[in-house]
Amino acid sequence: MVVVLDLRKEEPARLGSRVLVVTDTERLATGQRVLQEVFSSRLVRSVLVVAVGSGLRLPPALDGESRRVLWVGDPRGILWDADTGEAAHGPGVSAEPVLIDLLTQPEVFDEVVSGLGDIPYGTASPGWRIVAGRIDADVLAQTFREVAERFDGPVQQDTAAFSSPLATALPVLSGAADLPADLLDALVPDGALDRLYRRAAGQLDRAARAVEDLGYFHAAQARAAAVDEVVAAGRALAEFRDTVARLFEQIDHTDEDAGERLASSGIKFATPAGMGHAEITAELRADVEAALAERKSLTRLVARLRLLADHSAPIGSAAFVDDLWRICPDPLLDALHVPAGYPATLAARFVFFRRSQAWWREQLALGQARTALDDLRSLLDRVAASEWMLGESRMHASDAARTLAAALGEIAAQVAGTLIDWSKAESGQAAAAPALDEEVTVRLRDRGGRLREVINGDLVDAVTGWLEPGWPALEQGSYRDVRAGLDGRVDETLRQYRYHLAHRGVQERPGFGTGDAGRQEFVDAMWRQSQQVVRALGAAANGQMLQLCGDRDLAMLLRQARAVRFAPRAVRGPGNPPGVVWTRSGQYAGTLRLVPVRPGTVEENWSEDGT
Q: How does DSSP assign 520-561, residue by residue?
């Protein structure tokens, strides 16, 4: 990395191994103290000074072997052929931003510093022939707007289930998969409810046998005994139903004493294996990161998480009380408590015995009662599993999914807002300074769709890193901590990415990127198809170039130029001239020439106070 220190604006805030000092010639002459601080720092390995303006005077800090100075007599430049001496007016706009941008590329910085080391007095005037590979400002502005709409557009419904091959908890908790069979046995053997259930089942069986055993000739006492069995069965069934109803109404899994009360009633209460916070969070993370890797839109993922939160949220056992009455209604119990009378007429009792017997059994509703008992038990098993044993797990899955949805919604809004600001800043700006050939820039204007996919893919990749610190908090159930510092992380990454786009271009994958998204195909084709790039890389060092000086400054320059040839790594391949410096940046390709100044041209300021 190259640290830029502009003496026209600020004192040095931080230093690095490479320092690019930018100043005007007047401040350079009085910059002894600041330069001494830079050169004396143990962090600094090389310093390159860019001095803008006429009358170049150097302080003592730039004496001897430490001198590495680029003198920009006039940043608007002049078209100059060093061989013939022919000169023409330049484009009339300052090329200083492009020069600074170019020198902040570490590869170019190092090559220029090395080249100045071979030039007498370490001082030269820069000139160039460069092709710009920057995205057209209007295209970039439009791309930023389109990506912003993807991040924070209308909510898209996504009904896809969280059902990755490794997921076992989430499909069950959200109702996408059946409850495991081992959970559907809620009663502790010989516990209170188990005894009630078995007593009701046994009593119904006895009543059914008693009724079935009544023969063609039977005593009134036998029929009365059968009726008593039916009444006893009704009481046992009612007791089981009402006991289950009280449990449904009174117990919630969040109650501190829920476990004790359920245990005393003979109900199992323990979080099943594989359904803990850690397993649920791991499955959520795997699914979210898989969706991001597939470049799913955040709005779709937010909708999906909200749906998961709704489906997995426990509703409480009380919500199932009405189902108990539907399964075992009071009229059914009334038919058992007050059994229908046996047919009284002689014809019904003796002539049509079998038909009468069948009618009476139907009126007693013993078959319906047995079905109701089994259904009550089945409902109890399901509710005990989903609302009591899995209640905490379902609550965590719901809260975790809702927390993630909120975090992703916050990210989407922040990214979209920042992209809109970037779009406004880009709109109407010139794509490249007239000091540059723009062929690649023009070509890139036709690749807006691919550019959108690259930038959208980069930012979706960044979401994975933004969520990373929140996963431990989510696992521990510290839901508020999941979003702690999130906006700062997003803001810092976006700031770095903006710098990356400006200085590295879309060709190079950012540090947080994981996918290519057609990046290489997109940019490589543009650079490799450019004839301007070929000509700029092969330009003769003494040929016509834009020299960053005024026409009066030409007399101070020698006609012995040193060339620094550079290009993005995408341009590498056969046919390139030897000695090209391959850069990580995808912004520029061409030849930078260093023209030495004539001996005696540079004044040296030896006073201590800079006067």
A: HHHHHHHHHT-HHHHHHHT--TTSEEEESS-GGGGGGB-S--
Residue type, 191: G
Return d(Cα 456, Cα 598) in angstroms, integer.
52
Could you count the other beta carbons within 10 Å of the beta carbon of residue 607?
11
pLDDT tens figures, 218-232: 666 877 888 899 899
Q: How far apart are CA 68 and CA 12, in angstroms?
A: 19
In three state form, how does the secondary structure of 135-158 look? CCHHHHHHHHHHHHHHHHCCCCCC
Listed residue (282, 491, 286) closest to 396, CA to CA:
282
| Selection from 478, 481, 480, 477 nearest residue 276 by Cα | 477
**Helix, strand, coil percentages in the chain from 3-state DSSP, rounded to 5:** 55, 10, 35
What does the alpha-carbon distance between residue 24 and residue 72 come to, in Å, rounded to a whole number?
9
pTM of the complete model beyond 0.85: no
CA distance 413 to 99: 36
Residue with tokens 């807006």: 448
At what angle are helices 330-337 and 366-383 packed, to 10 degrees?
A: 140
Q: Could you read off the pLDDT of 544-564 as tens digits, one per residue?
A: 999 999 999 999 999 889 999
Q: Is 50 exceeded by the pLDDT of residue 433?
A: no
